[in-house]
Amino acid sequence: MQSRKSPSAGLPLHVLRMTVPFAMAGLCLWAIFTRIELPSLADLGGLLGGLQMWQWLAACGATTVSFWALGRYDSVAHRHLQTGLDGPQARRAGMAAIAFSQLVGFGLLTGAYARWRLVPGLTAMQAAQLTGLVGLTFLAALTVICGVAMVLFPVFAWFPPIGALLITAALAASLLSFVAPRLDFGSVSLRWPSLTAMAALLVWALIDITAAGTALWMLLPASLDISWATLLVVYAIALGAAILSSAPGGTGPLELMVFSLLPAHDSAGLLAALLAFRLVYYALPAAIACVVMVVPERLKSTRAPLTDPDLLGAQQRSAETLPHHRLRAESGVIRQNGGHIQAFGFNQLALLDSPQISVALFDPMTGNLKETLTPLQRYARQRNTAPCFYKCSARNALAARQAGWAVLRIAAEAVVSPIHFSESGSSHRQLRRKLRHAEKAGISVRPAPPNLPLDQMAALDQVWQDRHGSAHGTTMGRFEANYLTMQRVFLAWQEERIIGFVSLHTAETEWCLDLIRICPNAPDGTGHIMLRAAIAAAREDEVPRLSLAAVPDHRLAPRMDQGLRRFKACFAPDWQPRYMACPTWADMAIAGFELFRLIHRPGPVYPASLALLHRQNGNPGTDRGAETLAWQSAQEAQPGSAHSAARAS
Description:
There is one protein chain. The protein is of the alpha+beta class. The protein contains 22 helices and 14 strands. The protein has three domains: 224 residues, no CATH class; 103 residues, no CATH class; 202 residues, 3-Layer(aba) Sandwich (Aminopeptidase), CATH 3.40.630.30. Helix 3 crosses helix 4, helix 6 packs across helix 7 and helix 17 runs parallel beside helix 22. The termini are far apart.
């Protein structure tokens, strides 16, 4: 349907948007002229001429530092938007874009145009997103910096309460970004920068503001006695007003705020210092930026791909390529949590990317952990996230600690050897009692048929969740049809009714317990007899290692679910410590909170790939082929008791 609006319907609004910044600048300049007594041109020239050469050079040096920090700021924004263009050229383009836009004004338009023109491969949309992100996050960082400065350096009595309010708002926003990484506004979804990115942006903004304020302080005439800290606070507040006004160069609002916050000082000296600052911090960088904009080839270099030697050979592969000969079967959880295989040369990690962290789950699937530490750090840096190894073995934790990483023991994994497993002995006394209870109740356990009874299993899973709460996720599996079809599954039957099931990840040399679901009124020992059947099946397949998965093992562990530990302890497993490793303790804190959120508030289940399912169904040597053979064996065995069913499985 055609719009009835004429082409010129939005013209008044467009003209208003274009004229408001200039009107704001004019209004502020008029307010300044009515507030101070303007010096004559001769007096102003005398004040500028009185500045020493070292003052000009020092101000130029501080300006260089400020724009260098702004270039680094652009790098963080590129990594957040995943443009793939982070590098020296993008940083130089960011510096030129800011110098150009702060002279011309209309920062969103001019900054986006400058970045688009100076960075080959950057689309117009990406340039606009990048400019908007830089502007909004810089204003947010400036708010935090002003709040802290107002509390630490209270130039006026009203500074501390206002500063505390700004800090509180910033902390609330940071918490919101962690709890809700995305904000949805209808069809538009906005992703918050990660905490790592926020910290980096805050640091670079602080360096920029400090250097720019120092440049202004260096240019103060000798007649002005203003402390460096006071001027920095005043400059930060004035800069915020200048940015919000969108006036070209912040002209008017910047000067008005400086004169308003420093009313007791010589106005002529302040005006001379601001004029000198305009020449050094605005005019000189803008002149360089204009030259670059006219001849952008001077700035352009080849679009640098990853040349970091630590990332040479890095390759990302989908979970469909999960190798069956991997060391840790539990890494199969990436089939449904959105993870992927990250290869650094011959070393392969089961990697999960979240808004805050890049976490390698368990030990490397193949290769050496020590060779992945630095590449993982570089990979995480490209995403503005914290790198982390989760539930790695003691040997690999030691290698990480020797490399300077922070290491924390978090869990204990229960491991049994199916080949040598026996129910005899005092250590299995509790297990034998549980198995007798299950036998008396008439429970039989069979490997699941090739076509899983998914409807009954789904109903059982829902009943289990109604009783125990929503299933945890991310590092633990959740019920999903394709996912279960690629696992070994054992069903507990009572008469003709399924009362429980367990599923296990499988690899060449290890099986690992994943899901265990039991209906609320199931007889005592149901879980034990199902797991005993799985151990027997692993022994038949000559699998040397079966993991019962891990339980918490830290200071808070005694307050957590002890029933799970007691259940696994019935099998007298070998308890092996598992660790979490991060480059720093700050990264450890971020990763710990993020993993807690991901486990307890997981997102939607990613359905396992049907392509992988079809491939495995066509290969009798894979998980599903083995399960088909197990089902046929169980049918031929005609089990008469729970123990015979376990042997048949």
